[in-house]
Task: inverse folding
């Protein structure tokens, strides 16, 4: 493993929204991974981080760079879970609060966007929490 | 790009303000000597502003260089127009600038306006938002710090270079032709052949702040040079009269420019087609080497009679042919190994980013240690902590 980092994200912490993604992006630029791959990672990481802030009760983001340059990000929150993942993966479907929408978040593009840009995508959810794992390899 | 910024004093108080102010970590200090890394300096001039002792300065050509040429042309950017309150004043100023010893003065606003039109055409054809490439600071920041946006930089040349190339072609019978460009900032000083012998059509860059105080605007007896300033061109040097449109985002000030580039890297600027980014306040009229106060001169725009016309240009004329120095990319595997070692070294460093070692951050120090240029003993805090631990 080249690098492992863990970050904590709090519910409704819009003030610090995006800070983890900025840090992840900054670190990735030092690795020699190609800009086009980092761009995909940045977009996915930002969307997933914002998702956590808007929808979840908070949780952790784990960022891994593996020996071959593969990057994985896992987002593990503590609830309340996504009732219908199939619907959440449809573009434009949103359950974001008015508060979030007023701040420009929650357009319903989050999960579909993340899936579109990532090479590996797995998600599981129950009322105890949602676990999203995404992976990226150099193309 | 070569750094135009040099340290001129014999001594340095080691306050480290310049080291900390650098957006790319290009400055370091060792034994009172300031060193600037040419590869990553973007010539933004922030360090010059931070140096309380006026030790840092930008290398530039003096106007006396005119004597070295048979025929000289002075390019005048549209930002200069903001120093005057009427068209007749501008025409007198053009005459007065020519009187400093140039054979010809050339108004750049037509080319600046034409470039803006071409940026808009280019932006219409692309899916991603694109970045106007008139500012060398923004261009270099993208190459060094925002690499993910490199393909979004519009590959067009600078207005001064387009004009200088045309003029050299047109004036080739005049012998040794020297093209001088009046510039607003440190970064544009670097867009000239001298003093670095770089491959530019502009031969010398002169600071507006050096030249405007020399001109004599009294007793001109109505002597003028006809100038047809392009409204679009003049607009482009000033963000107050050019606040952007529905799909063009205009921003001034370094922090704003950075925030926008960060947003763009995350793909958040979905409604934007074109980014016009000016690291200086109120656009190019706020450059460090301009004459008037940009918070006052921005108002002069409304007092001028300007036409909408721009110079006719073709794409082959404006497309950039030479690109900046391309850094040799190492293989991914080597980079990853280096990255891993840097992170491990970083764990051993205190993490204060105090710059006491002369480098901006602990990360840069860790990189230097891994590269073998520094040792961990050179970290003052690390050493102090060791002493404290031993005495316990």
Result:
């Amino acid at each position: 493993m080249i690098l492992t980092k863990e970050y904590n994200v709090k519910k409704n912490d819009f003030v610090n929204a995006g800070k983890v993604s900025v840090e992840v992006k900054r670190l990735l630029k030092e690795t020699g991974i190609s800009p086009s791959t980092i761009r995909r990672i940045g977009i996915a990481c930002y969307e997933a981080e914002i998702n956590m802030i808007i929808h979840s009760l908070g949780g952790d983001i784990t960022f891994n760079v593996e020996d071959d340059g593969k990057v994985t990000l896992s987002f593990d929150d503590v609830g309340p879970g996504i009732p219908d993942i199939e619907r959440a993966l449809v573009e434009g479907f949103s359950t974001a609060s008015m508060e979030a929408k007023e701040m420009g978040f929650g357009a319903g593009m989050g999960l579909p966007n993340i899936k579109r840009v990532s090479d590996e995508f797995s998600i599981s959810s129950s009322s105890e929490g949602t676990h999203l794992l995404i992976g990226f390899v150099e193309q | 790009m070569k750094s135009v910024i040099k340290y001129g004093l014999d001594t340095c108080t080691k306050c480290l303000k310049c080291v900390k102010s650098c957006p790319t970590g290009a400055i370091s200090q060792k034994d009172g000597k300031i060193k600037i890394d040419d590869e990553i300096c973007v010539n933004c001039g922030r360090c010059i502003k931070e140096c309380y002792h006026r030790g840092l300065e930008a290398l530039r050509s003096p106007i006396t260089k005119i004597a070295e040429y048979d025929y000289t042309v002075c390019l005048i950017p549209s930002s200069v127009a903001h120093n005057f309150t009427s068209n007749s004043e501008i025409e007198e100023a053009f005459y007065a600038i020519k009187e400093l010893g140039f054979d010809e003065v050339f108004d750049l606003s037509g080319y600046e306006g034409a470039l803006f039109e071409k940026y808009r055409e280019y932006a219409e054809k692309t899916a991603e938002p694109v970045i106007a490439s008139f500012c060398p600071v923004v261009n270099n920041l993208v190459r060094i710090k925002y690499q993910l946006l490199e393909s979004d930089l519009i590959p067009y040349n600078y207005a001064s270079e387009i004009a200088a190339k045309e003029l050299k072609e047109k004036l080739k019978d005049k012998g040794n032709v020297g093209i001088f460009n009046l510039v607003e900032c440190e970064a544009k000083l670097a867009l000239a052949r001298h003093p670095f012998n770089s491959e530019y059509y502009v031969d010398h860059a002169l600071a507006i702040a050096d030249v405007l105080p020399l001109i004599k605007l009294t007793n001109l007896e109505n002597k003028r040079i006809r100038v047809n300033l392009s409204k679009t061109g003049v607009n482009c040097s000033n963000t107050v009269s050019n606040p952007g449109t529905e799909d063009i985002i205009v921003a001034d000030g370094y922090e704003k420019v950075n925030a926008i580039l960060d947003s763009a890297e995350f793909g958040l600027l979905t409604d934007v087609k074109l980014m016009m980014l000016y690291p200086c306040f109120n656009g190019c009229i706020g450059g460090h080497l301009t004459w008037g106060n940009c918070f006052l001169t921005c108002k002069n725009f409304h007092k001028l009679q300007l036409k909408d016309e721009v110079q006719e240009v073709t794409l082959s004329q404006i497309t950039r042919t030479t690109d900046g120095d391309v850094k040799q990319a190492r293989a991914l595997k080597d980079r990853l190994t280096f990255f891993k070692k840097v992170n491990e070294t970083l764990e051993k460093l205190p993490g204060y980013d105090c710059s006491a070692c002369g480098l901006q951050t602990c990360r840069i120090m860790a990189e230097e240690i891994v590269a073998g240029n520094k040792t961990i003993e050179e970290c003052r805090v690390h050493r102090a902590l060791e002493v404290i631990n031993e005495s316990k």
Chain A touches chain B at residues 2-3, 18, 21-22, 25, 29-33, 35-36, 38-39, 42-43, 46, 65, 67, 69, 138 (CB under 8 Å). Residues 3-136 of chain A form a domain with the Heat Shock Protein 90 fold (CATH 3.30.565.10).
